[in-house]
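Long-time lurker. I teach an intro course on protein structure, and each term I like to show students one example going from raw sequence to a predicted 3D structure in token notation. This year I'd like something fresh instead of my usual example. Would anyone be willing to generate the tokens for the chain below so I can use it in lecture? Attribution to the forum is fine with me.
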Amino acid sequence: MNIEIFLGRFHPLIVHLPIGFVLLAFLMMLWAKRSKSTSFHQAISFSLLLGAASALGSVILGWLLASDGGYDDSTLFWHRWLGIGVALLTIFAWLVNAGKIKASQRVLPATLWVSVILIGLTGHFGGVLTHGSTYLVQYAPGFIQKMLSENATANEDISLPSQPDSIAVYQHLIAPIINNKCVACHNESKKKGGLILTSQEDILNGGEQGEVVMAGDPYESGLFQRVVLPQTSKKFMPPKGEPLTYSEIKLLEWWISGGASFDEKLLDKPLPKEIETLLLKDFHVSVTVKPYYERVAVEPASAESIDKLTAVGFSTKPLSADNNFLQVELTADSPTFQQIEALLEVSEQITWLNLGGKGITDAMLPVIGKLPNLTKLSIEQNEITDEGVQELRKLAHLQYLNLYGTKISDKALESIKEINSLNSLYVWQTDVSQEAIEALNEDRPNLTIDSGFQFENVN
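-- Reply from a regular --
Happy to contribute to a lecture. Here you go:
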């Protein structure tokens, strides 16, 4: 049994007594001066005596409690010595008021004013030690937070990007849980158990008991173990405030089970069905990624631009009534370079482009590479080679590429691999080998590659 810690934990029980007694003496002094009454002298003296005794007791018990460790040294220094200052000033004020020390009439009021100010400062640093630096302003309106503390932050909601492929698991899902439910006791100012949870480095460093996150095993991770204990347990976390919700517990468990990565995106690997359901139910986030053209907006193409495009052999249709993107198809055979160059008139608006079987050559593909919002490109059955495909690497949002019946080989896949947005590729009736396709699939498992029908030999 540690008798020092046992006694020290009575510090919160009596620490408010000197605050009340000194403030009472201060208020009686103000009232006596205003009413010019001497009848408060004995009451003020008695209140100061009780304040001095309780302040001295608070200092002693607080000193014992601090030996438990886990407190920020700087904050503890100020709280400790300001508290000692309050005790000494209160004793001095009692001695002056009781006539034990001869002093002018201005000394007692000045001493009490200083004592009240020190009580406020001591209480502030005590609150920081107990609840963390953001406790006072955590739920305050934004303008108050800004005035009182540059570093204070409100209770952080889990607010997710609308697109699931933009969600970072730790940043958007796990960090808000830790910040809301754990950081009040585990920060730079208050290091309960020697543990800080305000950064990746601190989390990985763990606390006095060692690591708190065991990647791949939540049930051996202290961070998870503490939040699923019965709330009656002394080790249950958080000890104060709202416990983690079912959803927060499941997210924390899933994050640790998956390796506790601090960089992983939500869709980097398959999601358990339970997490999909949880995200949809609690955060209204579907894990189905919307097509690029549904996520961005462009200005409508001018009537003059559409007319020019039609005049050189293209047909255009609106992609949908909800956006200004166009699906464009070449109707003329064997186009010239100038005809293809006309596409730049509506380069921002073209998102689907069909040039299949129309005599397109490698020399024309640099123009196609300048269509910034192209998501679907059909250039099958044309004289396209590996060299021409290199020009398509610039298409940052291309999702569908049809190259069947062209003259490409394995080398073209090196360029195609650089189109990170691509999810559908057609290469049947080309010189691309099955080995190259399998190698690309290993690098890009989410890319669907259609290489035509594969027949097994039948003996």
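Some talking points for your students: The CA atoms of residues 362 and 387 lie 7 Å apart. The mean pLDDT is 86.
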